[in-house]
Amino acid sequence: MQQRDRGALLIDTRTPEEFAEATIPGAVNVPLFSNEERARVGTVYHREGAAAARLLSVDLVAPRIPALVREVMGLCGDDRSSVIVFCWRGGERSRAVATFLRLAGISARQLEGGHKAFRAYVRQYFERGQWGRLLVLRGLTGVGKTRFLLKLRDRGHPVIDLEGLANHRGSAFGALGCAPQPSQKMFEALLWDELRHVGLEGYALAEGESRHIGKCRLPAEVYASLQEETSLWLHASAEVRVKRLLEDYPAVEQCRDQFRGPIQALRRRLGGERVARLLALLDEGDWENLAGELMLYYYDPLYRHTLPQRRIEIEVEDEEAALPAVEKAIQTVLVEPRRTGA
């Protein structure tokens, strides 16, 4: 990844389907085979053996070699000095593409072990836990934790936007208005790509999350790190929180039907009468009262149940006026000795 940071072009030669599931962050997909072609080659391999599969591979790939090389040339631009090619485990697909590129004058190298080796490295990285301090913004729903993270990033603070990486707001309604979530493998790769910049003596800000953000699961070691430090607890009135919630979900009318299922799923926790009331507010388009009652009866009890003992409380009724207080709290936590195993 240091080579990628220095400008190397990463080429993933696997199929579009494999690439869509997970890749190395920053890689570009230049597939040697289509999804269907790879399946055909695999079938021939199992039925007729390796020699027949290789011959079919040559028949499929040979006509496309010039176009493939030109595509990579276009991606390289004027700098053809550093291209790294990989497939699943550093086998024949990436070896073939690297050979084609070198014949065309492009300095291409094969990534040893391929994506499989990268995945193993990422898992080992999380197990080692070698990153700096993770300072966590917490607070009741609607207080604006993500807003403050992004504002603090603009002011030069290192930030890891976990919900942004997961494409999910981390709640029963967290998928609404978001792009599809990445696979677990891709989420871990994206998280690794952020954490690796947080040196052991450094820090980053994050939002307090449960172990699961939608279908994405935080590695155990990262989740433990989020519990270690004194929390920055943001506080605002219910009225302000409702206003911010509605601002953060701007397209509620367009996705009204998508609210129905998550509300109905709350029946066991809230009871049939309360859920019927929420559905009635949904049908009326009374978003302000719907948001307020969801906070009052569902979200606030959940968050108050997990109120951290070690916390600095910060009033954030006025976003801009609160930023200096949040930054002061960050410095207060950073001068504390680092806590581990909390």
From TrEMBL:
Residues 4-127 form the Rhodanese domain. Keywords: Selenium. GO terms for molecular function: tRNA 2-selenouridine synthase activity. Transmembrane segments: none annotated. GO terms for biological process: tRNA wobble uridine modification. It comes from the Bacteria. Pfam families: AAA_SelU (PF26341), Rhodanese (PF00581). SMART domains: RHOD. This is Rhodanese.
